[in-house]
Design a protein that fits this description.
Length: about 110
């Protein structure tokens, strides 16, 4: 998470119902982006019912995230990439999976 937060650059564009976010980095941060963004997008879709789609590229990830309710749309647009990455309390289960030798990002 440290690499993702401190070594990436995110640019957001408002779309109908949410945001399209381009996240870019190099080196180890690029690997973190490629692993964490699709996994977290899936968690938000599962937990909140938001529509998410990620596409990996050579220098990052494009993430589209949208919702139906106006309140959720406002939340998505206000939080932006870094705020969205901090949502949900799945980290305890994530860390338990790691120490149990289970892939926490397997869907």
């Amino acid at each position: 998470m440290n690499m993702l937060m401190l070594k990436s650059e995110a640019n957001s564009t408002r779309i109908d119902g949410g945001l399209q976010i381009s996240v870019n980095a190099t080196g180890r941060a690029l690997g973190a982006i490629h692993r964490m963004v699709p996994a977290h997008a899936g968690q938000l879709a599962k937990a909140r019912g938001w529509q998410t789609k990620t596409a990996l590229s050579a220098d990052g990830v494009t993430w589209s995230i949208a919702a139906q309710s106006p309140a959720d749309v406002r939340k998505i647009q206000a939080l932006g990439f870094y705020g969205l990455m901090s949502l949900q309390q799945h980290h305890q289960a994530h860390h338990w999976a790691i120490i149990s030798r289970v892939n926490p990002h397997h869907h």
